[in-house]
């Protein structure tokens, strides 16, 4: 059973749901049915949601594979926390029009560290089993 991955998948699923509600709220606020309309705030909500959808599934898949391959819970939690905090900070930072901004910078950095960590762990595990 993948207990650690399930915890982070559940938390990230709730965050994705919040980002989805955020897009719907912005659509109602700016009266935009499709696309972004004329509101830059709409664009940032859409991109926060889409960016999450683009990157989180692969990272969770790598995390799950690492857990199945026997990677220790400490490494899994480290990567999971980096992923979760990174996605929260990114969602906050993308709403700040001034660039660069620290929440988005650190959110992206933490996410990259998580993706990189799980990628390297998966590679090491794969190679160590004669892959």
UniProtKB/TrEMBL annotation:
Ranges annotated as spanning the membrane: 6-24, 52-75, 81-97, 109-129
Any GO CC annotation of this UniProt entry: membrane
Signal peptide start and end residues: none
Keywords for this protein: Membrane, Transmembrane, Transmembrane helix
Main location: membrane
Location of this chain's protein in the cell: Membrane
SUPFAM superfamilies named in the record: MAPEG domain-like
Pfam family, one: MAPEG
InterPro entries: MAPEG-like_dom_sf, Membr-assoc_MAPEG
Protein name: Glutathione S-transferase
Organism for this UniProt entry: Aeromonas lusitana
